[in-house]
Amino acid sequence: MARAMFEYTKTVLKKVSFNVDLFRIELNKATERLLPYEINELRIWLEKFIVNKPELNSCLVIVN
In b/e form, how buried is each residue of 33-59, taking b as 16+ CB within 10 angstroms? Predict the structure, then answer.
């Protein structure tokens, strides 16, 4: 079940990445719902995902 939430979180973040505010809101929700090791995985995924989206760089603070 937990793994499904992690995958769902990534899907939602991909869909809202066009809007920084929505992305930040969904990322905050994710940090409340995911397990600690999943948050670490999410941080790694985020670093790769936002390489071409510099406007989302400020959101990394949420998972660090």
Answer: ebeeebbeebeebbeeebeeeeebeeb
Q: Between residues 2 and 23, which one has the greater pLDDT?
A: 23
Residue ranges of domains in the chain: 2-63
Rounded Cα gap, residues 64 and 62, in angstroms: 6
Q: pTM for the whole thing?
A: 0.89
For 60, the token pair is 């990394």
Long-range contacts, 48-51 (Cβ 8 Å, 24+)? 49/13, 49/14, 49/17
